[in-house]
Each structure stands twice: as C-alpha cells, then as structure tokens.
Target: ATP synthase subunit a
Amino acid sequence: MEGGFGPKIVFTLPGGIPVTETVTNTWLIMVLLIGFSFIVTRKFERVPKGLQNAVELLVDGIYNLTAQTMGEDKIAFAPYIGTIIIYLICANLSGLFGLRPPTADVNTTMGLAIITFVMIHFFGMKRKGVGGYLKGFLDPFPVMLPLNIIGELATPISLSFRLFGNIVGGLIIMNLLYGGLQSLSLKLGIGIPIFQAAIPAPLHLYFDLFAGVLQSFIFSMLTMVFVSIAMD
Model:
C-alpha cells in the first residue's frame, strides 16, 4: 500500500516487484542482529565479563522462559523463541530511531503467525502421530469438529492482528500527534519545533517502548503455549 499510513515503496526490482520500507527495515534489523551476534561471539572467554555477561544472561533467560512455559522436554525450541522475541523487540523499537516498524505491516505479522501455525500442527502430528493428532479435533464430541477447525484457523489471524493492530495503532496516533503539533507551531508562528520535541516523548515511551516490548513478549508466549498444547 502506498500513501497514507501504509509502508512506502523504496525501490522496484526488475519485473516491477516493489520493495517497501517494511522489507528494507527488516533487512537492516537482520544485518544489525547478525553483525552484533558475530562480533560478541568471536572472543568468548571461559570466565565471562563485560558484554559477554549480558549476552549469557539473555540466553539463559530465554532458555529458562522456554523451559518454564513449554516444559524441559521442549527446550529445543529456545533458539527459535529467542530469535522471534529479539527480532520483534528490535522491530517494534525501531520506531524510536525514526524507522517504520516492520511489524506495522500486516504482511510481516501474518508471516510470523503462519510460521507459528505450521509449527503447531507439524509438531503436534510429529509427537502424537497424524491419526492421533487429527482425532483431537473430534474432542470433546464429534459434533464439535467444525468449531475446532474454525478455532485453529483463527489462531494465525488473532496472533497477527493483535501484534499488527497494537503497533500500527501507536504509529498512527504518533503521526497524527506530530501533524497536530506542527500545525500548532505554525499557527503560533514558532519556527523551532519545540512542541514536537517535548510533548510526544511520554507517548513514545508507551507506544514504542512499553507496548513494543509487551507485544513481543505476548506473541512469543502465545507461540510457546500453542505449540506446547498441540504436543501434550
């Protein structure tokens, strides 16, 4: 979508394929995360200190969170959960640095939700067998089959739109606020953007920092819970 509050097209690939700022900002976040991972893991020492302490604390926290939420037998999901939660936090906080958060595009959140949806059913079938897993759709009564299927299909929609709605809602409110403050400055004849510098700061803390981190945590927790339920 071009114009309005949708992501802008940055450039077009041969064949007329548009590349939006959602894609370019995602590439930027990926490069930063890969570069950071490469740099901090090059010289790990037996006795950690400095940045290595912080990295090991983060990794331990993700493994503990995964074990407490999914169980010790599903600790192998920790690398994926860690990747998702770190990416989502970086994506949601990118608005603080003047970038459009990739999660303000429903294509990003729906893509992540579809990955979760595939994981739910793939690992459910792997653990219980195809027949045993599909039989669960008949619980508690066979007549509940249509409702159970609808409930499963609603999972990626609710996951993606919860994250997308919260992030894009904050983005729209902040854009409207900046527009209103700019108009107020022009009406008062103030050349220096003093209103834009001071007033939005508390709202940035809520929409970008608090809501961004909270929604990253919620998406990751729901992914763990849904996959864990499908396997147990």
